[in-house]
Design goal:
Blueprint: E1 2-3, H1 19-22, H2 25-37, H3 48-51, H4 55-61, E2 68-69, H5 70-75, E3 102-104, E4 115-117, H6 124-128, E5 133-137, H7 138-150, E6 161-167, H8 175-185, E7 189-194, E8 200-204, E9 211-213, E10 218-223, E11 230-235, E12 246-247, E13 250-255, E14 267-273, H9 274-286
Parallel strand pairs: 2-12, 3-4, 3-5, 5-6, 6-7
Antiparallel strand pairs: 1-10, 7-8, 8-9, 9-14, 10-11, 11-12, 13-14
Helix pairs in contact: 2-4, 7-8
Length: about 290
């Protein structure tokens, strides 16, 4: 399944109009992504430079671009760094129903009223912060959970929720993580799936029935090449490290049914690394029928 940009330009659009005037809100985001990509070493090379020359063509033919493997991007991240990197901090988005102040343990986010941003380490400022929700990457929260259980750290104000960031770089949230965070903080745990720029790609609701995809933040494809469908992402908010058609190495299935939380956005469910999915399928196939 592909969630494509909705093209709304009328027929016979005047060619003398600028690309920005021709683009809808969705495709104007694609235009900004093209601008950011054109400043990176990777997309200044041939043939990549030619492939992204026209944002208008990309809007309808994005799937024709070659995929880029995540391992390639992470191994050469400087090749994908935009000259404006660092100028686009992300805004924290609360899970549906989570209210009150939030402490975010990631300096890449933008401080604003009710959102306090800290380095991913314990500090006196964090200890006295009145935030009732703690948000951070899973690896950071694991440390805080262990420190809390051992009595070395106390965050008594955290009594509303834990928002755990999973990511393309840091991996997915596990059931063991959820158990650990519950044991340490005794509050509901919500997963948020972030891109290379800490931009929000998917968010879990109170129903805990998959991640609601942020279709205004990214274009999502489920590419069936190779047997198992692979999640392919073009992040429209990833302006620091712009990548078109990033092959994530993850699989899952898209659920278009309305969620019990009331949201109607598509969800991705059973998100897992492709290699684990394939190993599990092979193991299942090799098990004698009972």
């Amino acid at each position: 399944m592909k969630l494509k940009v909705r093209w709304r330009s009328g027929r016979g659009a005047a060619p003398e109009l600028s690309p920005v005037e021709l683009l809808t809100p969705e495709t104007s985001s694609l235009y900004r992504l093209v601008q950011a990509a054109q400043g990176t070493p990777y997309y200044q090379q041939e043939p990549q430079a030619d492939l992204i020359q026209s944002p208008l063509a990309l809007a309808s033919g994005l799937s024709e671009l070659p995929k880029i493997e995540l391992v390639r991007v992470l191994a050469g991240l400087r090749d994908f760094r935009s000259p404006t990197a660092g100028a686009n901090p992300q805004r924290f988005e609360r899970p549906l129903g989570v209210r009150g102040a939030v402490a975010v343990l990631d300096p890449y986010f933008q401080p604003e009223p009710g959102v306090f941003v800290f380095e991913p380490a314990f500090s006196r400022e964090l200890a006295v912060c009145r935030a009732e929700t703690l948000a951070g990457h899973a690896v950071t929260l694991r440390n805080f959970a262990h420190w809390t259980l051992s009595g070395h750290v106390s965050l008594p104000n955290v009594r509303r929720a834990i928002v755990a960031f999973s990511s393309l770089e840091g991996g997915l949230l596990t059931d063991s993580d959820r158990d650990l965070f519950w044991n340490a903080f005794q509050v509901p745990v919500y997963e948020q799936f972030l891109g290379l720029n800490s931009e929000l790609l998917g968010s879990e609701c109170a129903a805990h029935a998959g991640l609601h995809l942020k279709t205004d933040h990214a274009l999502f494809e489920m590419d069936p090449a190779g047997g198992d469908s692979e999640l392919v992402i073009t992040s429209l908010r990833g302006l620091d490290f712009p990548v078109f058609r990033l092959a994530t190495g993850l699989t899952g299935h898209i659920d278009d049914c309305p969620c019990s939380c009331g949201q109607t956005s598509p969800r991705i469910r059973s998100l897992a690394p492709l290699h684990i999915h394939r190993i599990g399928a092979a193991s299942y196939a090799a098990t004698p029928a009972r």
